[in-house]
Design goal:
about 200 residues, mainly alpha, Protein Binding, DinI Protein, Chain A, two-stranded parallel ribbon, 5 helices, 4 strands, about 5% strand
Length: about 200
Amino acid sequence: MKNTSLIINAVLAIAIAVLFVLHFGSKNEATSTTKTGVTTQSSELKVAYIKLDSLLVNYNLAQDLHEDFTQKQEAYNTEFGKKRQEFEKQAVAFQEKLKRGGFLSQELAMRERNRLAGQEQEIKKMDYELSTKLAEIQQKNNLQLIDSVKTHLELYNKSHKFTYIINSSNVLIGDEALNITKEVLTSMNSKYTAKSKK
């Protein structure tokens, strides 16, 4: 759940930045000066909004990426859990043998202790590497989702010519007729499905 909210927050931030660039990057709107000297836009302001959190929850690509990430996370946790469990068994056996005086010499006990210490370091390293790998996968997934949403909205807006397409989390009151989430989601899912079948 925490990973999903991170994805959504990252996508929201990028989407807002993209919308800003899309709007302020286009210079083709004519301006006019009123009697008071204030410059105004001569074209009509055309706004639509999407519910980005709803879009991402229902977007097939986001669901597939999340499912794939969850499977990898479970596999990594299982692998790490087995190594950790085996180490803990060996550490307990070492402690019991040490208490019983089961080592023939102090040197053998020290050698076993050093081996276990080395194994513990390997487990810590493995934990770090697996966590890093999962974070990289999560970041790659976030970038893929952001790129997918941005690209689709740019294509969508070529025919609809909205001045702004904003995220509904920034809208306090909005006309439901301006909500294009369902239309965009349907289009994105059908393109994703067609692409996955190839």
